[in-house]
Amino acid sequence: MIRVTNSKEFSRILSEYAPLVARVAATYEADAMHRQDLIQDISLALWRALETFRGDASLKTFIAKVAHNRAVDHVLKETRRHDRLQCDESLHEVLSSGHNDTQDKALDLMTAMRRLNVRYRQVIALQLEGFTHGEIAQTLGLSEAAVSQRAHRARHELETIMGQK
Known about the structure:
70% of the residues lie in helices and 0% in strands. It is an all-alpha fold and 165 residues long. The protein folds into two domains: 1-87, Rna Polymerase Sigma Factor, Chain: A (Orthogonal Bundle); 97-165, Orthogonal Bundle (Arc Repressor Mutant, subunit A). It is globular and about 50 Å long. Helix 5 crosses helix 7.
């Protein structure tokens, strides 16, 4: 169990996993201001949740679970509030600057991922973070078979979406 007894320790953990949190937020929110709000919401959720961390999984898996759960809540809340505004803002702030085919493909992928159903988006986002099917299953509370099925369907939908470009 991790006991975060002071803000310095929490800041260290948050700094270490900031890129992961930022990528999760970017997967779920296109608008830069809303994305920053989501990152703050995730950080607060992590502050509250770390005292419940029992070490059943890695700290990275635990943080990803909290971040994804908070991001899903964010999407559902925004959907209920208004018909989910579609922002045209690019992800250049999230990815490194400069233009090349790899970056363009990454931008296309992030845009396409936002069009996926949340249950598929979660699985693909965690795969892109390097999580195994077992870790994803543990993070999302699913069986490995369900994760494998969702990953397959998500890839198929992404191919369809990206083929429409």
